[in-house]
Amino acid sequence: MQGQSSPMDLEPIEGVSGQLLEWHPDHVPLTTGQAGRQLPFQRWFPFKEAFAPQFVADVLARDGRGTGTLLDPFGGSGTSALTAQHLGWNAHTIEVNPFLADLIQAKLHAYDVAQLRRNWSTILARVGRARPSLSRLYAQAPRTLVEPGEADRWVFSAAVLRRVAAYRQTIEALPDAAMRRFFRVQLGAILVPLSHVVISGKGRRYRRGWQQLNWTGADVDARLARAVDSAIADVAAARPHAGSRCTVARGDARALLADAPVADCALFSPPYPNSFDYTDIYNLELWVLGYLNSKDDNRRLRHATVQSHVQLIRTASPPPDSPQLTRCLQRLARVRDQLWSPHIPAMVGSYFHDLAHVLHHVAWKVTPGGRVVVVVGDSRYEDVYVDVAAILQELAPACGLRVTQCEAMRSMRVSPQQGGQPGLTETAITFTVQRRSTAAP
Ligand SMILES: C[S@@+](CC[C@H](N)C(=O)[O-])C[C@H]1O[C@@H](n2cnc3c(N)ncnc32)[C@H](O)[C@@H]1O
Q1: In terms of Cα–Cα distance, which of 42, 54, 51, 41 is closest to 12?
Q2: Whose CA is nearest to atom 17 of ligand 1?
């Protein structure tokens, strides 16, 4: 195992990649989606935790085999699969959040641009006739979703949500599933900009002066038209590799990895053990577009996510065997009463249970000698530092993996509950899959 080295040395990728792999700005971390806001496909939906396409390309280039199959069990906005596709690799991605799974599939699909344009014209011709009932569509949604809201707060004006719902209804009436998915994703992308909230850190907060915002149905029309135009332009200009085969599995990677195809390389970033649930951040898209229709739907989705948060109290899973993890859990148990949630120590143990399970499965899916690159972030609760990278390195041998490289990628802030100051390391660990000596998972 090497010690921590400097961040990856990058060369711009020429040729097949098209514009997706533009030169990555030096000052932007490769493990954040900051540079993606301007890149084709990546700009469809801003995703803060996304890899830079350049990071994925660099991992694949280092693999040295030209092409193969890439596995990413935590797909997010789909950067691994999309970049792999542009470079002629096959890809298999798993994502539990159904809106994000749609986003990934929408980005990967091979479209007929004329069909996209025809369907957009159909939507525009029909949307005026749609008469959605907000009270029926959102009967079980949080009361704050639309005015009059609750306690004098609401996320959407009735005019905006009514027009969004009209588009939703019109899109869902299109006969072709890929067309429905494409336009649903574009509609999802304009929701936060037309809401009274902004995504901030781990949650949402109301915009200053939101009561003065007077967005109407015309703003929905204008924003959606811009989003659709630029997405169709991306599709028209793209040159994805024709032979590449990409699949998306929807659901819990902990269960679905067993059915994943054999891969040559794996690259992923799981949620970090920072007590925050990803599904909360994307709740607007999930409720407004009809992926969630009841509190039970929401609970089921949370249950299917990695145990990195305490929004849902689950039965603790046994922590895997690691001396560093044992010491960390002992220290957390000692400060348990000072933690903002008493469930944090059990969450941390369960988190590593999940990650060991995932690593073990991934090691069985990637051919021996192949590489598994995992980007993880540390956490801190009170004065207890959760050194995720160090613990995963201890867990590696039992999962059938050998650590070959460990690179610090950036320093992150600790959670707002802990003061929000910087000081948490994000690390890319490269493992090599060993010959099968461990039992099949
Ligand atoms: C850090 S993000 C991945 C970002 C991704 N690398 C990209 O470039 O966009 C982690 C993702 O894991 C997903 N996730 C959480 N629990 C999951 C589970 N049990 N199975 C599959 N995906 C899960 C979250 O919804 C989130 O999209």
Answers
A1: 54
A2: 305
303 and 386 together in one domain:
yes
Range of the domain at 205: 113-237
How confident is the chain (441 residues) per 10-residue block, as mean pLDDT?
Answer: 30 42 59 67 91 93 88 97 94 98 97 97 98 96 95 96 98 98 98 92 85 95 97 89 91 98 97 86 95 96 95 92 98 96 96 98 96 95 95 96 91 56 84 78 76
What separation in angstroms does the CA of 165 have from each of 66, 263, 275, 300? 46, 41, 33, 24
State whether 274 and 406 are in the same domain.
yes
CA of 186 to the centre of ligand 1 (A): 20
Which of 15, 32, 14 lies closest to 79, judged by CA? 32
222 and 127 both lie in a single domain:
yes
Instruction: Output the residue whose Cα is nearest ligand 1's atom 3.
Output: 76
Q: Give 150 Cα–ligand 1 centroid separation in angstroms.
A: 31
Does 103 share its domain with 178? no
**How many domains would you assign to the chain?**
2
In a domain, 417, yes or no: yes
Q: Is the full-model pTM beyond 0.85?
A: yes
